[in-house]
Every structure is written in C-alpha cells, then in structure tokens.
Amino acid sequence: MQRLAARIKQCGLELGFQQVGIADTDLRQAEQHLHAWLSKNFHGEMDYMQRHGLKRSRPDLLQPGTLRVISVRMDYLPEPAAAMDKNLADPSAAYVSRYALGRDYHKLIRHRLQKLADKIQVEIGPFGYRAFVDSAPVLEKALAEKAGLGWIGKHSNLINRKAGSWFFLGEIYTDLPLPIDAPATAHCGSCAACLSVCPTQAIVAPFQVDARRCVSYLTIELHGAIPEALRPLLGNRIYGCDDCQLVCPWNRFAKLTAEGDFKPRHRLNTQQLLDVFAWDEQTFLTKTEGSAIRRIGHERWLRNIAVALGNARHSPEIISALTAKLEHASELVKEHVGWALARQSEC
C-alpha cells in the first residue's frame, strides 16, 4: 500500500494535478463546525447544504465501503494580481471571479480523476471508488486539510504555504486501505486581512462566513432580489468575488496556471459593464458555453450587471442602457434596473 500510494501521487502529478494527498474519513470536528454554521442559517437559500443529512461529513454513508479519500488540487490562477486589482479599480469594468474565466473546472478535473482511477486499476485491478468535483455532499476542504494539501484559512478557503489558495479541489473516495498523510497545520497567525477587506463584511468572525452577505452567494447562489442594503457594496463584481484571496499574504507564492482551459475566454477578464449588459440571451449562452457562469442564467446575469452599473460613475451611456432594459420581461431585472437608475440620478 505504501508503494501504491506513492504511485498514485506520481500519476496525479503526471496528469496535471499540483498535489495529491490521502486522508481517512474521520470528519467529526468538521461535522460539528458544519452543524454550528447551519444552525445560524449562514447557508441562506443553499438548502442542499443540509439536505443530505450526515452524508456530507461521513464519506462511508455517501459511498459505502469508503476507507480513504484521495484529495487533489489544481492551480487555476489565470493572471497576476495586478491585473485583477486594475479590473476591480475601474468602476466601468466587469469583474468576474477568476475561477470562472475559463472552461468549467468540474468536467476537466473529473476527467483527470477518472484517468487517475484508471491508472490505479491498471496497477491493482478492479477496486471500489467514486470521484467528486464539487458535485455531491462532500466536505472537500476538510478532507484536503486532513490530506495535507493546506489549511482552512479564516476566510474558509484552503491555503497552501507554497501555493496560496488559487486552486480547485477534487476527490476520489476509495475502499483501498492506503496509508494516510499528515494533516496540514494552520499558519494564519494573527492576520485578519481577509476579514477587513471583505466588501460586505461576510466573514463575521475567523472561520465564520455568513453566506447571506457574501458577494459570491449574492451574485451566484441567490435566485431572487439582492438585498438593497448590500447592493452598493458589490461594486463592479458581477460574478463572484476574489477580494479575500487577493489580500491574503500567502498568495504571493501562487503560481499562474499552466492549464490552457483555465485561461480567460471571450475577454471575460477585461470586459466593460456596458458591453456585457448588451448581451441578449443567445449571446450570453454562446459566450458562456462550457463555463461555470452559465449556471446563473441570463436573467441573473443582467440583475448583477444592473447593480454594478448603479454603482458606476454617472454616465449618460449607462442611463441610456439601463432605460432600455426597463421594459424587460423579467420583473427581477426591471427592479434592479430601476434601482440602478435611481443611483445614477443621485450621482
């Protein structure tokens, strides 16, 4: 099993993962943290966080026979921090969370995990396994921490001392009794930069994120109206938020991705708000084909951009573009457009 574990890690690196670790399935501490988080309703409308009972924190309930979890990480950072800072500083620019600029990571990483499972099967023959990429009730960050890939920071993202936090995670649940790796130790110390920089103060305490205030939740997970009190705080962020990662000092060690599929598509890292606001539904579907962005749909895309336009500097072009959307078929879009117009008139 020692030799097999070493072979698994070598194959993982050959397949393009930056790190591979192995963990057991004891998630009692993470389970307590999850239940405390749910009891505060910090999950908002993300009912799936509690829908599966204990399957999320007890891997053998999700996949019977699971003894170990092979955890992997893959870097996705598409550009230097300076480029992101420039994008965020321009109120007329559209900011999209950098994980979503390229191809949807779910398919790419799941395909690589399947290749890794195939290689294991070549080595030892048939075995029990199931691969996951943010696609089932899995406590991926807790498992990655146990597997030695990094520690969960105060912003709730996983941080690696040598690679920062700009990476995706994936898992293979398996019935193989592989030797486990030492869990990672925390190195946030007294730093609270992520708590201070959060635009909506969603990190209410170290390791405690109230998703109902989080920009990523508001622009991606929330289906209805964005609370008015939070709209001015979104700035020009139209899909997700990276502020807590941008400010994290450990990300000075982050490396740009070598994966072509994670590079920006359709200039999504440099688009202007007015340009993406003008996309009709077919254009939206075409430009977001194979992208994680498509999941929010055209209606919420327009909702988010309307808020960003309301936060932009006063402009006759913006007022004209917003006014043209006042007759939109969606009540959700019209309400946010109306709010944005009122904001523009105040400038």
The number of strands is: 10
Return Rg in Å: 21 Å
Anisotropy-based shape: elongated
Mean model confidence by pLDDT: 97
Beta percentage is: 5-15%
Binned, the helix content reads 25-40%
Number of helical elements: 15
Order of helices and strands: HEHHHEHEHEHEEEHEEHEHHHHHH
Summarize the structure.
This protein is α+β, with helices and mostly antiparallel strands and about 350 residues long. About 40% of the residues lie in helices and about 10% in strands. β5 (about 150) and β6 form a beta hairpin.
Write a structural description.
The protein is elongated and about 65 Å long. It contains 15 helices and 10 strands. The chain has helices at 2-14, 28-39, 48-51, 59-62, 81-89, 105-124, 140-146, 193-197, 215-221, 243-246, 273-277, 281-287, 297-311, 316-324, 331-346; strands at 19-23, 68-75, 95-96, 129-132, 151-152, 158-159, 167-174, 203-205, 208-209, 237-239. The strands form 4 sheets. The chain has a 4-stranded antiparallel sheet, sandwiched between helices. It has a two-stranded parallel sheet with strand order 3-10. 39% of the residues lie in helices and 11% in strands. It has 347 residues and is α+β, with helices and mostly antiparallel strands. The chain has 2 domains: 2-89 and 99-174, no CATH class; 193-346, no CATH class. The termini are far apart.
